[in-house]
Amino acid sequence: MNMDCQLIAVQAIDLIGNSCINDLTCQPTIDYTRDWVNAELPGDFILAVLPIEQFTDAPAFFNQAFNGKTRYEFRKVAEDGYTFRPLATEERNSRLNELFAINTSTDFRQGKMNESYFEFPEPMALEICSSHFHKTYGAFTSNDEWVGYIDVRFCGEWASTYHILGHKQFLQACKKGSLMVNLWFEMVRDILTNHPHVKFVFYHLMDVGNPGLQAWKKRVGLEPTKLI
Question: Does residue 74 form part of some domain?
């Protein structure tokens, strides 16, 4: 796919890896991130990256990254009583039945679901490093039922979203907009407010997924990106 790309120099991204080189809890996140933050990626790999450092705060992101239709739908979803917030690790681990229900609400999303989603989720380990850690953001109904989530790996100035899933029943019922757009905004708001050192948010490849997913990536501010 031919597309104009923003160019980002790998050397300009600080993963803060050297200070934690012997920390067994940090190293998997550092290794995962280095596999992607790599100027030697295949030439046809166009990353989907939000240059979050361009936005001064969450309102600036809302007004600059979202078009008028998305902003309207965002407000309509909020009016339906959905709420969005980060989950502490302890809360996430206490609600694994709901997480499993989200994962198994359909066996087909952008293709056949990976079998790992149909295994009961493991508790997430507590992490104490402020540079390398995981964080989960959740979407909840007015009755506090957990119906969508985004998992993020933080690694220095780079944050990788590696799960973005909603419960099929609630995705279909949300006719006025996309509750996952609202959840993405909550993630961005939290990063800008509480993790201001993060410069880039990454979500896989720009041209992977069906046309609806590719349009969704553009809708939430992700840009085609090449690392050099």
Answer: yes
For residue 23, the domain's CATH number is 3.40.630.30
Sequence letter at residue 43: G
Q: Do residues 146 and 98 make contact, with C-beta atoms less than 8 angstroms apart?
A: yes
User: For 36-76, how does the pLDDT look when each residue is reduced to its tens digit (9 = 90+)?
Assistant: 999 999 989 999 999 999 999 999 999 999 999 999 999 99
175 found inside a domain:
yes
Please tell me the predicted confidence (pLDDT) of residue 2: 62
Does the residue 1 lie in any domain? Answer: no
Domain count, the chain: 1
Q: Structural domain of residue 124, as residue ranges?
A: 6-206+216-227
Structure tokens at 217: 């990536």
- Asked if residue 126 is part of any domain, the answer here is yes
Contact assessment for residue 153 and residue 134, using Cβ atoms and an 8 Å cutoff: yes
Alpha helices in the chain (DSSP H): 27-36, 58-65, 68-79, 89-94, 96-103, 168-173, 179-194, 211-219
The CA distance from 55 to 152, in Å, is 19
Annotate 157-196 with b (16+ C-beta within 10 A) or e (fewer).
bbbbbeebbbbbebbeebeebbbbbbbbbbbbbbbbeebe
Query: What are the residues facing 85 on neighbouring strands?
Result: 138
Write the pLDDT tens digit of every residue in 184-199: 999 999 999 999 999 9
